[in-house]
Please model this.
Amino acid sequence: MQSTIITHQMPTLHYGLGDLAPQISEETMRYHYGKHLATYIDNLNALILGTKFEMMPLEEIVRRAEGAIFNNAAQAWNHIFYFATLAPNPKSTPTGVLGGAINREFGSFESLRTLLLQAGTAIFGSGWVWLCKDKHSRLSIVPTQGADNPMCDGLTPLLTLDVWEHAYYIDFRNRRAEALAAAWERIDWRIVEERFR
Ligand SMILES: [Fe+2]
Model:
């Protein structure tokens, strides 16, 4: 049987690089999407050649790899997921089954916002803050370090915010809490609701 090497590709954004401003500037997007994500994908494609990972889909690499291949694969996956969560005209609050689950788990949508932004702000060094569901559809806020992804612990990510300095230093310098609060405004809850189903 002929095996096919997978060359991982940059995701197509469903918005323009300047369309998330003023919360996330075009300059940040040019570096974050155009350089940081592109580098992770380029590194991954180079690192997997000649290994058992060269024919695996990205998610499978994230679940199975370690070291540099894991770091670049997970950073690629995390960024693709993050950029796909944002929108120029987002649905600003969740409704339906997700809205009900948030109220049950966190008391209110505002309480989820406060807790998730606090968890992201408190991460020491680089990482991500996630809203996840478990196999019983229970929600949780999960802070992770470096490239780590809650998929590796059996959780399903519903949304993430990037807590690496490269995500906000152009626009917010060292003001991480403000940067996360701004990015929160760009989360499209229509997309998060679809992931919760
Ligand atoms: Fe990033």
In short: Residues 121 and 177 are 6 Å apart (CA to CA).
